[in-house]
Amino acid sequence: MNNLKPMRCIGASLFAALMGLLFLAGFVSGASAQDTPDAGPKPSLVVKPMESHIDNITGHAANAKSDYRRYCAGCHGDYGDANGENAVWLDPKPRNFTLATFKCRSTLTGTLPTDEDLYNTLVRGIVNSNMPVWNTFTKQQRADLVAYIKIFSPRWEKEKAGEPIKIPAEPPVTIDSIAHGKALFTKLECWKCHGPHGEGDGPSASTLTDSQDNPIRPYNFALGKNDSRFKCGSTNQDIYKIFMTGVDGTPMPSFADVIQPNDAWDLVHFLRTLQIHRHGKENEVLMSAHGVIPPYVDKNPAPAAAPADNKAPGGGQ
Ligand code: HEC
Ligand code: HEC
Hints:
Blueprint: H1 4-35, E1 51-54, E2 57-60, H2 65-76, H3 115-124, H4 139-149, H5 155-158, H6 175-187, H7 191-194, H8 236-245, H9 261-274, H10 281-288
Antiparallel strand pairs: 1-2
Helix pairs in contact: 3-4, 6-9, 8-9
Bound molecules: heme C (2 copies).
């Protein structure tokens, strides 16, 4: 029995020493967190001197260090790789900034967004996702964060942002415009993913995945209430941009090569009628047509294809 005593003694002092160490460790890490609030991730991260330009404001990456760590890293990760501690719980996943692929752009598919595009995303947040609205920041803070997003991918040092697409003035909403939009929706097979009534239930819908192999559902137009917002904005111009530039990193393609700029407005007008709970010009026009979209009749049909050796003079197409 006697020989147990020293054992117990050693056990007890070991325990005390361990507790002491734990306490010390807690104290030290607590203290160092206080003394240097921005110790930064380990291994440390090189904050490249990236800039952003929003109107007359210049954003500097270095100034966004603590804002990013405090407000963004929890989802987007210290290294911008979408591995923040909350990311596992989120669907859709946070954006992985190391890929520099962005959904909300005014620029053609595959190109980098403009500083304004990123800035506007921070102002707006992303509806139907966990990306919050950041309206408590100053303009300067947001500009600095936009610059900070650029430190994570070398693309920002090698490439310029794409050119914003040109959007012609919106023509009046008429039932003909809506009818033409509907014809385009059918012809371009938007319905295959979005469903015939835009409810996100097309035949391909359940099979779609994004570029990170996460399942992704096409947007359900019918869900939007009166304030119906899209991920990348809420105006008719924003919808125009979405399908002309595509939602990069998802199966939602860009139609800039297929749709003529003016025809795109007809498609916008039709898409608005799929938002059945929305009060707006498009649904008013549809109501006055007794809720019936007439079949589209092409008033300027393209001339019948000429044989290859008999091209129209003047390079006509
Ligand atoms: C609670 C989680 C969360 C936090 C915090 C968060 N984000 Fe996000 N963020 C997301 C998610 C989720 C997405 C992707 C949404 C989607 O794909 O629909 C996203 C997307 C983005 C995008 C991509 C926009 C595009 O066009 O693709 C940017 C830029 C962005 N976040 C910046 C930030 C910045 C800057 C902060 C900090 C001020 C921040 N986020 C904080 C969850 C978060
Ligand atoms: C291959 C499938 C597919 C086709 C074809 C397709 N879409 Fe999409 N679309 C999607 C997916 C998936 C999303 C959701 C992307 C996301 O949530 O990030 C989407 C999103 C959208 C959005 C934005 C919704 C939002 O939340 O901001 C609009 C607008 C849209 N599509 C319009 C169209 C139009 C118009 C056509 C045809 C000209 C079309 N789509 C064709 C799959 C498709």
